[in-house]
Specification:
Helices cover about 10% and strands about 40% of the residues. It is mainly beta. The strands form five sheets. It has a 16-stranded mixed beta sheet that branches. A five-stranded antiparallel beta sheet has the order 1-2-9-4-7. A four-stranded antiparallel beta sheet has the order 3-8-5-6, with no helix packed on it. The N and C termini lie far apart (about 55 Å).
Amino acid sequence: MDIMRRWGLCFVFLMLAPWGIAQQDLVLTGDVNGAQNKAYFDIPFTVPPGVHRISVDFHYTGRDQRATLDIGIADPHSFRGESGGNKSHFTIGEADATPSYLPGEIPAGVWRIIIAVPNMRPQVVSHYTAEIHFNSRAEDASFTAKPLANGTRWYRGDLHMHTGHSDASCQSQSGQKVPCPLFLTVQAAAARCLDFIAITDHNTDSQYADERELQPYFDHLLLIPGREMTTFHGHFNVFGVTQFIDWRLDLNSMLRDARAQGGIASINHAEAPEGEGCMGCRWMPPADADIGLFSAVEVINNGFNMLSSANYWDSQLRAGHRLAAIGGSDNHNATTPPGDVGAIGWPATAVEADELSVPAILDAIRRGRTFVDLTGSRDKTLDFEAEAEGASAKMGGTLHTAHATPIHVSIHSIAARGSVVHLLLDGDDSNKPLPLPGDTANTTINAGAGRHWLRVEVHDERGVTELMSSPLYINFPEE
């Protein structure tokens, strides 16, 4: 108490609850006066059990009179970093931290905000506030506190990439094969004008520290936390989660863990080769796998030279699962030139979101507002809607009909003139292709009673697939 009186500290507790039931956010306040010029002091606070992330916002008055307070932090056992006066906000998590600070375990006990007073004029009193937040959901899910862009449009990105944090390699300055630095991947994605990427290194979360450092600099390119859960029965990506997920657990437990943390999961390269040439690459889930816990299927993977998993995808749609279409380069070398197998941004996943943020991109994937651009272009778009009996739905939505009735479909595709549209009903491509003399094609189909789905592919004049849409559902139950 003597120390608290000496420095004029005051502790304010928010969200009061017993330890172990809910973590308590804190507000610590106090005053520093001229007598403390050129002094150091600590502000102690208690971290309860069960905390995996601490975030600090530090502010003080008197700057107009050259008052200066520098900050750092220590856990009960060791120093965790010091940023002087260059940061008013920082976060420390188990896998990532703001530069200047060390990620790692968050031990329960007494932590200390470390304050240095480089300058305080004799008559000045500076009032400080340190807001301590535990387990910030927003910082667990993203490396930026605000959207990088606003406005509803199609944002394009690559949702499957690797770096030296797993098995990516590239040539060093002297031409040696070395683990490829994550910076090169982000730089290449920015150079190709992508809006977002997810770096999905295998079963690891060490890449997140690098991404948290790079995100403020790459403020036109959203870095989505990702990882490829690499198991004996196949691979799947988890997006929007930075906490550790144990890949050795049963599949459903992993998926529920990711969902509980606000993330989504996609099945990767489901129809990849199997055997010793690519161990665990083909998707062969256990019999009790709950596919309904997935949000998407990687229908195109370019690490296997534009491997399509559309047959598997259709089989799961046939079983009644709602799964969006996404694609990924599966890049393992950031220096791979555009047009080569596995080049960054080829294919691209386009997502219609109302802003460029992790929550908005993930929500758009959940809603099926996606298409895959196999050409990796910046301008091609694909969307469609269906109408019957006075009701209508867009791609990703559900059209409810009471009878076997004609369904009118309108398909919109920009920058694809001269190509043809294939409208697949229940995975069947027997409908006559529709020409695209402009940006819109219209047709009427008869789906019959019961549950169905529609999806669209755009092919060029050679018959090569350019675009693949997510489904539009007919008489599917709402989730």
